User: Fold this.
Amino acid sequence: MDVSAPVLDRQPVVRAHCPDWLVIQTHSNREALAAENLRNQFYDVYAPVISKLARHARQTREVRRPLFPGYIFVARHTPAMQWRAIRSTIGVRSIITNGNTPSTLANSFIATLQDREVSGVIARAAAPRELGDVVRLARGPFEGLAATIVALGEHDRLVVLMNLLNGAVRVQVSEDQLSAV
Assistant:
């Protein structure tokens, strides 16, 4: 699923009469294939993507990746919708169920995701911290020490520079371990 993948650009508009969405589990790295095949069967499919930096062979480029790897969503317009045909679609592994009934997500959840889209890509929330911010560690073995943020990582991880034992030490911490100075 590359930036040039055209199938991810055709996202449905959330309809007010669509009460909920089925959660579809796809085969590994087959979200776009499953979404395209379901659209060919006239299902309303939503496969949200985010933009990430991919590094390979000393090159960095921006690529689109699924927001929920291995999952896409199909609108369920009526409770009596024939959903069993979805399971036999190429790229689909299964429908997430609760017993024999498909599990669903509220339309408001999908609408919230679509509200965050910019040019077909889910925009990341603004980071509460910036490079160069001075923070204090609020818990953990370094509690109470001041540090400077030197890198922003993924999954709410930050790299901070602390003065320990007469030298600067880089430490990776989670966002919830910090407080403002």
Observations:
- The two ends are 42 Å apart (CA to CA).
- The domain at 134-180 is CATH 2.30.30.30 (SH3 type barrels.).
- Residues 1-9 have pLDDT under 50 and may be disordered.
